[in-house]
Write a structure and sequence with these properties.
The complex is a heterodimer. Chain A is about 35% helix and about 15% strand. Chain A is α/β, with parallel strands linked by helices. The model of chain A has no long low-confidence stretch (mean pLDDT about 95). Chain B is of the alpha/beta class. Chain B has one domain: Aconitase, domain 4 (Alpha-Beta Barrel). In chain B, helix 3 crosses helix 4. The chains are: A alpha/beta, B alpha/beta.
Chain lengths: ~475, ~200
């Protein structure tokens, strides 16, 4: 057979295909299954009801992140349900011999932060987790996707999932980023143009000189929000940056087998001349610091741009814009800069890594959080937290008036005590500005980069980070 | 899988829920995910939206008397976007819905719905506008074999759904676990040919 040029998706998909199912879906082998406390208890119960064992406990890794308090972490938790769900995960992991990275492990954290950090996430893998932001791991050149609880049961029982084939859209971003512009702004700009459902049925392949120059942290921020554009998976082709990141990580191969693995990883990258179902391109220089103004991540503007006016929009989109502006209490055609901020949140699987905290701390240093702002930093993992403390970043935040918390998902989805109250407006480095997302049905979320959140915390209002750049 | 699981048609009363990009946080706010079972989730379906309606003195479509016993939900585009929480389709199913007709669905939501027995089909925006406008549309029939949506005796429209889903409903094989466990030797072969499974598990 003559080898043909292929995409990374095609190569990994083929290598993991068990068979074509009668309905035309593919039975795909799952190389790495990550689990957490919120979407798994029902799956383990379904497994027990059928009397099925966990097929590959050594390919399954657990942590606690979603519901875990990030202040008082002593047990039992004050929140009885948090205690019950954590206990259930601990028991399920013990029963089935699944490694659990809990608070006592020193490496606990948001599942999408610790997978890469521990070197569990590697190029060429299929990675599944009961969480839509599993797309994050695609930054390493893996096929990583979120699944529901019944599919968690499927993976536990069979180490496989049934998936329909995907198309690939190559998204090329070219050129250097302007000062004050970060990976978060790039992905917000991509979603703004392609839409929150533009990626349905697609995997996004992010490429171009901008992506080539990015660190793994930045690539993870981009891939993380693929799902906000409707794409279940997003990936970046593995390169020297990927290999360098993985060297020496706890679960990465060692010695001569590292070089073998690295060669294999690099060979997974899409071939020159691979064919794509769609291609789009962006000029990095045209991307400005970006903030959302609405109730989904596609409703965003450059921070110095005026808000849309529904009167100039035709069709059903007009109603959506009207409703979003009303919910956000924003004026049609007005400015987002200058909006008073009540809460500032730095953290989440999108922007809770060490480089994010460094960027935010660089803005905060020497300033104080505005008196009316409640500001918190929630590191993505215990390792991020201790690395930041070694650099003194925690002191920068504490001196400015930020709270410095334990690792977890926290106010990204408000399943722990960190939440908005009433119609508070939150400058947030997280990924979703849906109504009610941050724990108050009328709470308002404005998504932005961690540096922009830091600037907003200090200014007490949404502000252009470029004002703080010197 | 038994004959019982075959789904050829869904017929019943309809609830109309207007608006694009309805996310799973709205369908099932995160605080209700604090539970170790899916039981009782239906009580919290669209909890915050319904409370907001009550506060305004309105009635949410799910709280109208006619919604009781409804089997089919009509929605606009990109329904179920956002979080992968299966709690959202579980709550819709447990409320009593057996099918959702949309202009389009978010992918993970549609996949989750398939695994639990909730039919997702789509119609073009203009058909949806007609269905939503017509106050007379109280009962619909979805025929998965003929791929049609009908106001019985009055009107008929074509519907679309992924062929894989349609075949799964018609064969009754929509719960994939048994299929995934069949002929397990084939899975072992894939396991054996993936080099990373050996190098990385060493440190586990």
């Amino acid at each position: 057979m003559v080898p043909t040029a292929g995409t990374l998706l095609r190569k990994i998909w083929d290598a993991h295909t068990v068979r074509r199912l009668p309905n035309g879906q593919t039975q795909l082998y799952v190389g790495l299954h990550l689990i957490h406390e919120v979407t798994t208890p029902q799956a383990f119960d379904m497994l027990a009801a059928e009397g099925w064992p966990v097929r590959a406990p050594h390919r399954t890794f657990a942590t606690v992140d979603h519901i875990l308090p990030t202040d008082g972490q002593s047990r039992p938790f004050t929140d009885l349900m948090a205690e019950t769900m954590t206990t259930a995960l601990e028991k399920n992991c013990r029963t089935h011999g699944i490694p659990l990275f809990d608070v006592s492990s020193g490496v606990q954290g948001i599942v999408h932060v610790i997978g890469p950090e521990l070197g569990l996430t590697q190029p060429g893998m299929t990675i599944a987790c009961g969480d839509s932001h599993t797309s994050t791991h695609g930054a390493f050149g893996a096929l990583a996707f979120g699944i529901g609880t019944s599919q968690v049961r499927d993976v536990l029982a069979s180490q496989c999932v049934a998936l329909s084939p995907l198309q690939v859209r190559r998204i090329e971003v070219e050129g250097p980023l302007s000062p004050g512009v970060f990976a978060k702004d790039v992905i917000l700009a991509i979603i703004r143009r392609l839409g929150v459902n533009g990626g349905t049925g697609f995997a996004y392949e992010y490429a171009g000189s901008t992506l080539d120059a990015m660190s793994m942290d930045e690539r993870m921020t981009i891939c993380n929000m693929s799902i906000e554009g409707g794409a279940r998976m997003g990936y970046v082709n593995p390169d020297a940056t990927t290999v360098a990141y993985l060297k020496g990580r706890r679960f990465a191969p060692e010695g001569p087998s590292f070089q073998e693995a690295a060669d294999r990883w690099l060979a997974m990258a899409s071939d020159e001349g691979a064919s794509y179902d769609d291609r789009v391109s962006f000029a990095a220089g045209e991307i400005a610091p970006t903030v959302t103004w609405g109730t989904h991540p596609g409703q965003s503007v450059a921070v110095d741009e005026l808000l849309p006016d529904p009167r100039s929009i035709e069709g059903p989109e007009r109603l959506s814009v009207e409703a979003a502006l009303a919910f956000m209490q924003l004026k049609a055609g007005g400015a987002i800069a200058g909006q008073r901020v009540n809460v500032a949140f730095i953290g989440s699987c999108t922007n809770g890594r060490l480089s994010d905290l460094r960027e935010a701390a660089a803005i905060v240093k020497g300033h104080k959080v505005a008196r009316h702002v409640r500001a918190l930093v929630v590191p993505g993992s215990q390792q991020v937290r201790s690395a930041a403390e070694r650099e003194g970043i925690d002191q920068v935040f504490l001196e400015a008036g930020f709270e410095w918390r334990g690792a977890g998902c926290s106010m990204c989805l408000a399943m722990n005590p960190d939440r908005l109250h009433g119609d508070e407006l939150c400058a947030s480095s997280s990924n979703r500005n849906f109504r009610g997302r941050q724990g108050s049905p009328t709470g308002r979320t404005v998504l932005m980069s961690p540096a922009m959140v830091a600037a907003a915390a200090v200014a007490g209002e949404v502000v252009d980070v470029r004002r703080f750049s010197r | 899988m038994s004959e019982d699981s075959v789904v050829e048609r869904v017929a019943g009363r309809v609830v109309v829920l207007r608006g694009a990009d309805v996310d799973t946080d709205r369908i099932m706010p995160a605080r209700f995910l604090k539970a170790v079972t899916f039981e009782g989730l239906e009580q919290h379906l669209f909890a915050d939206d319904r409370a907001a309606n009550r506060a305004r003195g309105d009635v949410h479509p799910l709280d109208e008397a006619a919604a009781g016993g409804a089997k089919i939900l009509l929605v606009n585009s990109n329904f179920g976007c956002g979080s992968s929480r299966e709690h959202a389709p579980q709550a819709l199913f447990r409320w009593g819905f057996r099918a959702i007709v949309a202009e389009s669905f978010a992918e993970i939501f549609a996949g989750n719905s398939l695994t639990i027995g909730l039919v997702c089909v789509t119609v073009p925006a203009d058909v949806m506008a007609t269905l939503m406008q017509d106050a007379g549309v109280k009962v619909l029939t979805i025929d998965l074999r003929a791929q049609t949506l009908a106001v019985p005796g009055v009107a008929l429209w074509p519907i679309t759904l992924p062929e894989a889903s349609r075949m799964a409903w018609l064969s009754g094989e929509w719960d994939a676990t048994a299929l995934l466990l069949a002929d397990y030797d084939e899975v072992a072969k894939v396991d054996a040919r993936l080099p990373y499974l050996r190098t990385t598990s060493r440190n586990a």
